[in-house]
Every structure is written in C-alpha cells, then in structure tokens.
Amino acid sequence: GGGVETPTGLGVLPRAMAAVGAYRCIECNGEATELYRDYQRGVLRISICKSCQKPVDKYIEYDPVIILINAVLCKAQAYRHILFNTKINIHGKLCVFCLLCEAYIRWLQLQDSSQNTDPDDLIRYAKEWDFYRMFGIASLEQTSFFIGIFITLWWMTPEMLKRRSDFILLLKALLLSTYGKLLLIPAVIWEHDYTPLCLAFIKVFVLISNSQAIRVTLNLNRILPWFAIFFGLVLENGVVCLFQKMGWDV
User: What does UniProt give as the signal peptide span (predicted)?
Assistant: First the structure.
C-alpha cells in the first residue's frame, strides 16, 4: 500500500491516498486514480488512460534531467507531469529567488549608469537601499502581472476558476513557469555586451512558459492564455509607468 521512489527522485504518492481524479493523464489531461500498479516483487506497470489508451504518465520512469529538458522545451506532457503528478513545493522559494535575480540585474544596471564612486558609508548604504527598492518594484510588477492574468481568465472563463483550489493551482503553475528568470544572472555575466538582447529573449521565454502553464492547468486553447498574458503585461506596464511618474528608476 506504500508509495515507491521513482527514478525522478520526486516520489509518487501512495496509491491508497489517490482519490478519484487525483492524477492526470499527461497526453489527454483525463483524470486517473493511479499512475502505476504494483504487482509486488519489484514489478511495476504504468497505468493506461481509459480515455486515450496511452500510458497515464510515462515520465515517472524518466530521469529528472530528461524531464527538465522537456519542460524547457515547453512540452505540455512535461508540464502536466510536474503540476499534477508530482509533489513539488518550491513555488514560493523559486519565486523569491527569481525576484532576487531580477532585482540584482536592475540594481547592477543602475550602478553602471551611476558615475559616483565615492566610498563613503552613506553612499554604500544608499546603494544597498537601491537593491531593496529594486526587489520591491520587481515584486509589485510580478504581482500586477499575475493579477492581470487572473482577472482576465476569471472574466472570460469563470467556470474554470470556481474554487479556491483552482486559483491556488494556477498560481503555483505561474510561479513554477517563471524559472526562466534564473537565466538572468549568467546572461549578464557571460554576455555583458549583449545584455539587452539576452534579457529580451529571456523575457519572451518566460512568457511562453507562462502561457503553457495556463494552458495546461486550465486545459485551454492556445489563444486565451496569450490574451490573459497580454492584459497582465498591460497592468504590469501600468505599474512601471506609475513608478516612472514618481521619479523612480525602474
């Protein structure tokens, strides 16, 4: 009755705990009660989806590196495996770390534009405060972006976001899909002369990941997630304009 440790290293929930619809088929998004069947003596067999007659989740046998590569390629199957069929609880930590990376990049660019090299303690304190300010601004922009997405999806597909758990799942999916921001640091370190172009590519990659996360979580077509992201960007840019009117460097 206990769960087993799979090659993914994430572990699968015990089958006894699996309620109806606890898992999802990574191919058709259909509900499943189990990912595998244990025939004892180390013999496991991946469950077959009743809807599409394909393995419910082939990734439970895959190495984590392969799963990561498939997620980077924005494959819907990999996203469904991560979001529905594994226990991952790093959403908050990943979000904070990504925001720290973004704040550091903005702070670095702000320091590059400043010609003041005075080593005075007051100057050093001001520079440290600039970093905290950049972190706060990045957090508010991210929050505004997510709020824009939630408002648009709730307005256009209210049946998809009826319960609090639906909002939480979508929020976790969006937080996980921002992992592309981790590329900000090496982009600046290795390609300093082409930083603006690198940052633009990273931004596009993150948006594509966000779109795929929305599509997989709510089982939508390709157009609606991009529509929600567009309004999220509108609200985010509105916040940026507000900061600029206040005279803040963002």
Answer: none
